[in-house]
């Protein structure tokens, strides 16, 4: 049998801790005294409360860099052992630590089950697993599963398993998956190559038979498009689904079939789609017109990722939001648009109309299909104005090139967007509380004109609820001069709630020495709640790149000191 106690911290505790181990010389003296003291002290009450200990240990998190700490806690005493192991084994990145609790022998590079089986020891760890990831191939023989199935005699393999994520399927993993199905399993994810043949059909049939227990189903693959049609069609039979993710950008889905599938999932609360919608008539399912599509009244979150493609990719026509039923778009909360080409006039009009008509749209992300070729695609400012004017918008992230604006004013790009939002939303609703919390402009050089400190001041005064801002910034303090007086010198701190500021420095000069303190004081008064500044200088040809990075570190330190001093002075008054 191979030594399985050194492969992973999760396999190191296979036996029981003895009393001598519990109260031995290495035991913490405080804990040792507490365990022997029978008085109902607060310390003893804490040690006796396994649920409270579990909450405390959960703060470590089940991460690889914390597993050693959890293992150390489990070795302290029997009091700590149970709660610590519960956290350590709750989320498993592999099934191998559990399999290696069995008596195994390697024969011709394959692991086989040999020797006596200890059900109690195996069960003690199997019951702790809540989430399992099947990601890597292994050299474990299917004979091990046959032996295990016989020994368990019909009992669940992982009786408390709630979620399984499958990234790789070989013969052993596919056979193992069928043993994982139990009434507690409610979340199933397939990603990447796990959606390919030949082993996927092995898991489909038992999964469908288990469909009444599945609440969340996720199918994700960035490149694979050969998903079995019968499996895809069977999704409509998972009538208890509450969350469905289909992220298969190369998969063509008939719009009528999609409507039919969603019509059957009446309990669906969350939907995420990234597929190619086609209008071909499906011969297996009745065709539903857009007007006949269901209301999807239970949907609370709809995330759609769509492609803006040119005539060469869409049968001679450009397309935006193709084929999705209007009633589904009405529930859209998150919209990600991948640009393969520039907007046509009709496409720009379509996206503005759909965004303005979506009553629950909260997040918009605009991305080029390729970072290297992103400079070939430009988003018209009038399209962005339409998106900024969506009253429910909470988060907008722009990663594509913003085209030049024909309108010539002294206002920066971001000021124009905010003014347009204010003019469309707040004129008719003066008491409107703006929900906008995140604005991320492109970080790439030339993708967006650099903003100035004057723009930063304008943002703080007009978007008080903003929490995260990313922009290319020319931090020259000349922008703060207004009629010979500094903008911030005659004003108190704003009420802006901004906590995160990401700056891509756009100036090509050194920071003058006095600018460090000036910018630090300005940012502290403009964003009094600011927790962090992340500064970048992305131009490789900038000769002052390293100096600017050091300058921003100094500015952040000065701003942080000013904030701490202000908070201290306020508490002292």
Automatic annotation (TrEMBL):
<dbReference type="InterPro" id="IPR032675">
    <property type="entry name" value="LRR_dom_sf"/>
</dbReference>
<protein>
    <recommendedName>
        <fullName>F-box domain-containing protein</fullName>
    </recommendedName>
</protein>
<feature type="compositionally biased region" description="Polar residues">
    <location>
        <begin position="1"/>
        <end position="20"/>
    </location>
</feature>
<feature type="region of interest" description="Disordered">
    <location>
        <begin position="1"/>
        <end position="28"/>
    </location>
</feature>
């Amino acid at each position: 049998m191979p030594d399985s106690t050194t492969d992973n911290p999760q396999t190191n505790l296979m036996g029981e801790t003895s009393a001598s181990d519990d109260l031995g010389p290495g035991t913490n003296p405080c804990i040792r005294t507490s365990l022997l003291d029978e008085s109902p002290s607060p310390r003893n009450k804490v040690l006796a409360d396994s649920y409270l200990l579990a909450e405390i240990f959960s703060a470590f998190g089940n991460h690889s860099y914390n597993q050693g700490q959890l293992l150390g806690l489990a070795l302290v005493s029997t009091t700590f052992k149970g709660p610590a192991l519960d956290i350590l084994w709750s989320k498993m990145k592999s099934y191998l630590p559990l399999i290696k609790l069995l008596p195994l022998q390697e024969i011709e590079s394959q692991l086989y089950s040999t020797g006596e089986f200890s059900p109690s020891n195996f069960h003690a760890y199997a019951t702790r697993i809540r989430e399992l990831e099947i990601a890597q191939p292994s050299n474990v023989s299917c004979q091990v599963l046959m032996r295990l199935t016989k020994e368990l005699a019909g009992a669940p393999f992982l009786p408390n398993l709630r979620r399984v994520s499958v990234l790789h399927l070989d013969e052993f993993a596919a056979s193992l998956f069928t043993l994982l199905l139990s009434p507690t399993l409610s979340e199933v994810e397939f990603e990447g190559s796990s959606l390919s043949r030949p082993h996927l059909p092995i898991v489909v049939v038992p999964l469908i038979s288990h469909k009444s227990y599945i609440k969340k189903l996720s199918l994700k693959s960035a490149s694979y498009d050969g998903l079995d049609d019968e499996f895809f069609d069977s999704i409509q039979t998972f009538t208890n689904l509450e969350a469905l993710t289909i992220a298969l950008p190369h998969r063509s889905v008939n719009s009528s079939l999609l409507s039919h599938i969603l019509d059957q999932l009446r309990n669906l609360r969350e939907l995420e789609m990234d597929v190619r919608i086609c209008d071909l008539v499906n011969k297996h399912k009745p065709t539903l017109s857009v007007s006949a599509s269901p209301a999807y009244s239970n949907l609370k979150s709809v995330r759609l990722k769509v492609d803006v493609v040119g005539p060469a990719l869409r049968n001679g026509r450009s397309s935006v939001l193709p084929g999705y039923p209007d009633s589904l778009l009405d529930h859209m909360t998150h919209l990600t648009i991948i640009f393969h080409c520039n907007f046509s006039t009709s496409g720009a009009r379509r996206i503005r109309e759909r965004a303005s008509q979506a009553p629950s749209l909260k997040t918009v992300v605009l991305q080029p299909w390729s970072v290297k070729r992103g400079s070939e695609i430009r988003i018209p400012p009038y399209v962005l104005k339409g998106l900024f004017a969506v009253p429910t918008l909470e988060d907008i992230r722009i990663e594509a090139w913003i085209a030049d604006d024909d309108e010539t004013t002294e206002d920066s790009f971001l000021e124009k967007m905010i003014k347009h939002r204010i003019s469309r939303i707040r004129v008719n609703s003066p008491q409107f509380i703006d929900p906008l919390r995140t604005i991320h402009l492109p970080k790439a050089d030339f993708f967006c004109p650099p903003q100035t400190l004057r723009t930063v001041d304008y943002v703080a005064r007009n978007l008080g609820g903003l929490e995260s801002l990313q922009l290319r910034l020319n931090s020259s303090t000349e922008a703060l001069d207004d009629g010979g007086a500094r903008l911030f010198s005659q004003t108190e701190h704003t009420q802006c709630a901004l906590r995160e500021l990401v700056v891509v420095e756009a100036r090509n000069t050194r920071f003058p020495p006095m600018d460090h303190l000036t910018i630090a004081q300005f940012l502290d008064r403009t964003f009094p709640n600011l927790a962090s500044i992340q500064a970048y200088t992305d131009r490789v040809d900038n000769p002052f790149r390293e100096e600017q990075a050091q300058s921003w570190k100094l500015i952040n330190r000065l701003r942080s000191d000013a904030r701490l001093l202000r908070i201290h002075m306020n508490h002292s008054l």
